[in-house]
Design goal:
Layout (H helix, E strand, L loop, with lengths): L8 H10 L6 H21 L4 H12 L8 E5 L5 H8 L4 E6 L2 H10 L2 E6 L14 E6 L12 H8 E12 L5 H16 L3 E14 L8 E11 L3
Parallel strand pairs: 1-2, 1-4, 2-3, 4-5
Antiparallel strand pairs: 5-7, 6-7
Helix pairs in contact: 2-5, 3-4
The protein binds S-adenosylmethionine.
Length: about 230
């Protein structure tokens, strides 16, 4: 097996393209089980900035007590989002992910008070309603990963007045998913469940890995505030 330090962007690109045949969430989670040990180094080669972009936007709008706030990090992976939020003063994290190997690394980071293994999209989120000050999902809203139907669950688990932060990619193979996601976000706003605080398109989201694209692909960050009923 190639050592992490010898890896190049081309190696990581090949690895990620090999996962495109994984069509179900379960396949994708198995892929992450095998990728976990190299994930942090490999996404650095991709210039993956989504965790810091999401953390920045949350930090710009959150006015409460950060040390006391409880953050639910959905599809937490190895813990890159909690690591960024900690730098902004947040101190209490609960993580959920489907991959046991990613969760092991999140546990080793010692950033989380609680970690739960759950395949998102199958049943309800394994957390209580109205209980988190911030709910965040980064890098997992795309085809074959977390279904759009889970967005309502994220809103349910948030305290009234709390925030939900989500990211998605805007490149060609995610456009259909992104449209469905934005439709659901708007529908939930029309139902009076939450209001949009910020939706930002970012051009240099991460390095492109597909054959049809080069340079950087774009992406989006959304921040919603759950309404007080
Ligand atoms: C690209 S990683 C993002 C991890 C972390 N949020 C970050 O930004 O580094 C996607 C994560 O979502 C998890 N995941 C994908 N689909 C899932 C599903 N249906 N249920 C649970 N976890 C899922 C994977 O196991 C993986 O840890």
């Amino acid at each position: 097996m190639m050592s992490a330090s010898a890896k190049t962007f081309e190696n990581v690109k090949t690895l990620i393209l090999s996962a495109h045949k994984n069509t179900t969430s379960r396949d994708k989670v198995n892929f992450y089980n095998s990728w976990a040990d190299n994930y942090d180094q490999d996404v650095a080669l991709l210039d993956y900035r989504a965790p810091s972009l999401a953390a920045n936007i949350i930090s710009c709008h959150f006015t409460g007590d950060r040390e006391a706030a409880v953050v639910l990090d959905v599809a937490c992976g190895t813990g890159l989002v909690a690591k960024q939020l900690k730098q902004f003063g947040f101190g209490h994290f609960v993580g959920i992910d489907g991959s046991e190997a990613m969760l092991k690394l999140a546990r080793d980071s010692r950033l989380y008070q609680d970690l739960k293994q759950s395949l998102l999209g199958e049943g309800t989120l394994p957390v209580q309603c109205d209980s988190f000050d911030v709910v965040v999902i980064v890098g997992a809203l795309s085809d074959g990963q977390v279904p759009v139907a889970v967005i309502r669950e994220l809103c349910k688990s948030t305290k009234p007045g709390g925030y939900v932060c989500m990211t998605t990619r805007s490149n060609h193979d995610n456009l259909e998913y992104k449209s469905a996601l934005e439709l659901e976000l708007k529908q939930m706003e029309e139902e009076g469940l939450w209001s949009c605080v910020q939706a930002t398109d970012v051009e240099d989201w991460e390095r492109a890995v597909s054959e049809q694209e080069d340079g950087y692909i774009s992406g989006s960050v959304y921040l919603y505030k759950k309404l007080q009923l």
